[in-house]
Amino acid sequence: MMPKAWDVLSTRYDRSFRVFRLRTDRARSPRTGKDHDFFVLESPTWVNVIPLTLKEQVVLVRQYRHGTREVTLEIPGGVMEEGDTPEGAARRELKEETGWREERMTSLGYVAPNPAIQNNLCYTFLAEGVVPVSAQEQDDKEDIEVVLRPLAEIPRMIREGEIRHSLVIAAFYRYFMEHRRDGD
Q1: Distance between CA 142 and CA 11 in Å, rounded?
Q2: Whether 97 and 173 share a structural domain
Q3: What is the CATH number of the domain that holds 100?
Q4: 3-state class (DSSP) for residue 12
Q5: Per-residue pLDDT tens for 133-170?
């Protein structure tokens, strides 16, 4: 039997922070009739950008991540701000984090980062024909190094754990498996 949506009996907002707010939902199981509390991180929508130069170099960003306390290698991305469209946020994040601008921007779709505890989406865009146009526009909480790597190296970098951010891996999956076809 296919699972059914649970009835939400009540919602309480517990704490609010800049990048998320904690919500507690009381919901009833349609299968057992029992009530349970569920904790949800409400977050704004995110965007990721795969920036490609005309020579098939990927513009990556290397930065420190407090969650894992590690320096990671990723693609540019960030939170959608008030009034942003996903594509507009992708263009803004690309320029702010790298100082590069695209010739063409194509949507590669979106994923739900962790639907068990988060309510947001992450859109991925392919930025083609990127070129440097300005200095980076980092905020006080960013310390980003721009790194170029050949597109052909990305699968190996993922396999060997050099790139391990799950949303970045999902973005490259979309690119390699769904966008780029043999002969393209």
Answers
A1: 34
A2: yes
A3: 3.90.79.10
A4: strand
A5: 999 998 888 899 999 999 999 999 999 999 999 999 99
